[in-house]
Amino acid sequence: QVQLVESGGGLVQAGGSLRLSCAASGLTFSSYAMGWFRQGPGKEREFVGAIRRNSVGIHYGTVYADSVKGRFTISGDNAKNTVLLQMNSLKPEDTAVYYCALDQTFGVSARGYAYWGQGTQVTVSS
User: In this structure, are residues 54 and 31 in contact, taking their beta carbons and an 8 Å threshold?
Assistant: First the structure.
């Protein structure tokens, strides 16, 4: 059974940084896409970014939402099924519950991801 465990959320002042981690376990396939999504108060869940992992463990092909481009970076640990979301220059509007999601096919829609983490709260104060 695929499980995704997130960590790293918290409270930070505007302009600060946080790093989220998502560790996957129980995988029966070696190549996949890992997406990050967020849902702010009263808002719909939105795409943040995603990365691919090939069958030999290389992470590649990151894409980002325009709202986070240049501030957020997604990377993968090639030896582990772990993906990081480095968030810099955080703004109050980045406040949301952040979710990682995984599927064998790459996409930017939440509906395309079968497996989800529990979510971690990120709060950015002004």
Answer: yes
3-state secondary structure string across the chain: CCEEEEECCEEEECCCCEEEEEEEECCCCCCEEEEEEEECCCCCCEEEEEEEECCCCCEEEEEECCCCCCCEEEEEECCCCEEEEEECCCCHHHCEEEEEEEECCCCCCHHHCCEECCCEEEEEEC
pLDDT tens string 15-70: 999 999 999 999 888 899 999 999 999 999 999 999 999 888 888 999 999 999 99
Residue 9 confidence class, pLDDT cut points 50, 70, 90: very high
Residue 78: pLDDT above 90? no
Q: Which of 43, 63, 67, 37 is nearest to 52 (CA)?
A: 63
Query: Do 124 and 68 touch, CB atoms closer than 8 A?
Result: no
